[in-house]
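[Q] Does anyone have a clean structure-token version of this?
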Amino acid sequence: MKILLDNTTEVGLRAGHMLMGQDEVDYVGVWRSEGARRSARSGPATDFDGFDVALTDRPAPHGDLVARASVTGIPIVLWDEAADVPPGSAPVPIIRGANLARTFGAALAAHLSSGNGTAHVVVARTAPGDPLTTGTAVSFPAPVGPLYADVSVHGGLVAPFSGPWAAVSVSTDRGDHERAVGVVDHPERLEAFALAATVLAAARDAFEPGLCEASSQPEAVMEALKQLELDVAVWRSHQ
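[A] Here you go.
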């Protein structure tokens, strides 16, 4: 597998390193970066030809990158939630929102629900800010711990947190106990996990052509997160 990386932030750089650690990834080309160090498995790239999937961590507009991916016939994964591409207009998958806020909750919910027939799942994540003093109580793995959360505009719950960590948790009430799974790490690292996992899922044809959400294939993304060795905490609270 050959991956084209367009990185402008620490998130893209970390995602590239994660992908280079996978045996199935043969080469990572860094888009238009003459300063990229050349090696047997990475180096600068000036053309999309020969690559299997592209990714970018830059904000919209993505028109030039999307056009190149479409002409070449490869999927492209966007960390940003915005995409200047009309739905259904592309001959290849244009996958947006491969980030912590939009992707992790859906993937962990699929992990928690797998084989359990879970009817109701609650997804929560942290966001930078001063902790709330009221709201819905949510548990996150240590060192974040319990916080109060409000409903997010994207669905699920958001708990402001002023520490250096980011966290996501998914829980389900099964009557006599609550079962939950969650992750906690530095924000850039979790963002990179979301981006890299979506790239692996896209390279395995998990997404249909056209504009689509990274969260639309949570099982495929979760499998990739496991492959990337994401550490997922599991706990239960009895009632």
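[Q] Thanks! Anything notable?
[A] The chain has a mean pLDDT of 90.
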